[in-house]
Amino acid sequence: MNKIMTSSFWVILGVFCCFPLALFAAEAVTNTHQPLNLTASAVGIASIVIFLLAYSLVMVEEFTHLRKSKPVVLAAGIIWMMIGLVYAQQGMSELAEHAVRHNLLEYAELMLFLLVAMTYINAMDEREVFNALRSWLIKKGFTFRQLFWMTGFLAFFISPVADNLTTALLMCAVVLAVGGKNTRFVSIACINIVVAANAGGAFSPFGDITTLMVWQKGVIDFFGFFALFVPSLVNFLVPAVIMHFAIPDASPTANSEMVSMKRGAKRIIILFLLTIVTAVSFHNFLGLPPVIGMLTGLSYLQIFGFFLKKTTKLAIAETSLQHEGKIGDVVAFDVFAPVARAEWDTLFFFYGVVLCVGGLGFLGYLTMVSEVMYTQWGATMANIAVGVLSAIVDNIPVMFAILTMNPAMSEGQWLLVTLTAGVGGSLLSIGSAAGVALMGQARGQYTFFSHLKWMPVIAAGYIASIAVHMWLNQSLF
Fold this sequence. Notes:
Layout: H1 2-27, H2 42-59, H3 61-64, H4 69-89, H5 93-126, H6 129-140, H7 144-158, H8 164-179, H9 183-202, H10 209-217, H11 229-244, H12 265-286, H13 290-310, H14 312-322, H15 336-340, H16 344-363, H17 365-377, H18 379-390, H19 395-405, H20 411-423, H21 433-441, H22 448-452, H23 455-472
Helix pairs in contact: 1-2, 1-4, 2-4, 2-16, 4-5, 4-16, 5-8, 5-12, 5-13, 5-16, 6-8, 7-8, 7-9, 7-11, 8-9, 8-21, 9-11, 9-20, 10-19, 11-23, 12-13, 17-18, 17-19, 18-19, 18-20, 20-23
């Protein structure tokens, strides 16, 4: 840990040493009302180095035990500090301010959406929903392999309705409840859930943020996305079939204990489903951001929590008369307790990633990369590369850069880049919101390196899905 702190000190010192060079580079730039291209400047190069150093620390989190949010939040602050200094020297501070506020708004939508989803999941956990589900699954005699396929298919078919992030969190909670300390099962099942959730979100307009962006841009109509159903299914099935044989051919430890859900558990499940419907409806019918629907859904839980609190004494009295010995199932509910239990390290990690990548985009790197790809490589190779890139860099700014460039492509090519941007993040655990969230939820069992071991298998599914799309939808090219 002392070595890490020392390294961080030298990184910060090096950045401040770069300031004079940055000022010199800034003086040579003409003052315009357009963002400056700083890709060849000291600030640009320093930003790339800082981002790579921060992400390197994220990748080795399980060895250093340094929370992944810490290096990326620091990197985000340093990158934007350098950008702000350059733009202040050029008298263009308002451009930098507008850009960082735009990135902050993107993060706020993602953070609040995720916070509501985590709150509901924690509330269901507090009400013993997942322990009761685990007990039921064990009594049904499902093996680990059957559970592997059940959670995978549920993730694939729920994510087009809900988003892939919420779906992955929900399925992971089930896996943790059933798998317990069986690290091998939990690890592989989480990989399967990430792949399935990302694949399921790729063929739905509101299954992933990138598909939402493409839909809102008007490039592909609502029903056009469903041409990706079969390729997305192939993307999920190819690695799942191979990973199936690595799942322990055994059943969870038998447990005769009957776990009962606490009072209000079923109604909280219904409220969670209603929250998802509200979020989808707000966006689909009203054109509002899905996060507004999610926050509205949080109010459902808050009001219901107030109802549970006010009726606790009455419920205890009724339970003691009707079901002697089960008074423990009637427990007061505090809605802010699940909020406090949210994975705040993950939420701050998203802040760092969004601001870091947003800063690199503002410096001109994302546009530069997109221009090189579509001008020199061609649409097909570029769109395939987008998927690989999205496994390293967040797919949202990558897709935003492509939509901003608006290259002349057929509908088949636009569907291809939608597919690759959606499922390419499955190649690495840090490549998608679902993977990052599950690393926090299944800490110590599902890690960056446990996912990395299965990357060749996931890559086989990635290649197969592209081939199926180009064959099945060849009339759209």
